[in-house]
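User: My instructor asked us to take a sequence, write out its structure as tokens, and then describe one feature of it. I'm not sure where to start. Here is the sequence I was given:
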Amino acid sequence: MDIDRQDLSPDEGGGFRTSTGEAAWRSVLDADGGAYTVHEHAPAHSVAERQALPFPWSQAVKTLAFTTADTPLLLVALRAEDRIDFARLAAAVGASRSQLRATDAEALGAEGLVPGGIPPVSHRPGVPCWIDTAVIEVGQPVFCGAGSADRTLQVEPAVLARLPRAHVTQLRR
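Assistant: Let's start with the prediction itself. The structure tokens for your sequence are:
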């Protein structure tokens, strides 16, 4: 089942009926006005399960979550097939490599996020999203986390790049 913003039933507050965490990041995309679709499907946790979904793997994007001494949460979006260059990420965020830490599941849960389903956008003012240039260069819609293992966000890379707190730079090895 695909859910376009336009297909959702409004709730009493004028928003849309979604989970609390999903509603929050959707509000950022809605404010931008760019089109996106959230696809519902069977839960997919492993790479093999994700590759079996009906989305082109060449357009799959993963979002990783990190923390530093100065930033409690930062998101990093890369093509699913790419590996992160930690030295480049550290330089981009202005931290030393030793300060970068993967965000644990408990901290993600406090943000309404789950490992393996992190969207490349946050509603929190202090949460930046660093996007690898290869994501933008795909030139087609990308498919990324939508908050849970049974949902996938489809969005144009240009929409992600123009969101508040988005930074585009090369981060892959």
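For the description part of your assignment, you could build on this observation: Residues 20-32 form the longest helix (13 residues). Try explaining in your own words what that tells you about the chain.
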